[in-house]
Amino acid sequence: xxxxxxxxxxxxxxxxxxxxxxxxxxxxxxxxxxxxxxxxxxxxxxxxxxxxxxxxxxxxxxxxxxxxxxxxxxxxxxxxxxxxxxxxxxxxxxxxxxxxxxxxxxxxxxxxxxxxxxxxxxxxxxxxxxxxxxxxxxxxxxxxxxxxxxxxxxxx
Length: 156
Hints:
Elements lengths: L12 H6 L21 H24 L5 H82 L6
Helix pairs in contact: 2-3
């Protein structure tokens, strides 16, 4: 039985240069991808790199001269791993988009609450001026009443 070619699942160097999002280290090994700390752009770039890997794997499988059942199983397993990784990135990206849209809704509702608070504050200040005006009027009326009762001002 023929073994799978050593190049299976490897991206061509040209394709790797186009999609270099894994942060290749000087020793040739890719740095581990941390989805927890990745930005939305990092996730999108990672998903693009995974798709490029899957395309390269499919092309490599198509070009392979020896198509044994073992090779087909290895190819399917490698592609499944990439699909699972792609779906993980898609879920992480979706989570970040939901958080961002939730934050945007909160910001919008916070803005609306600030506007409502400003309007109520203006209304309270207006009522406070009215109350002070009424207090002054009632104080003047009380003084006039006291003056009338004291006979200082004749009653009409």
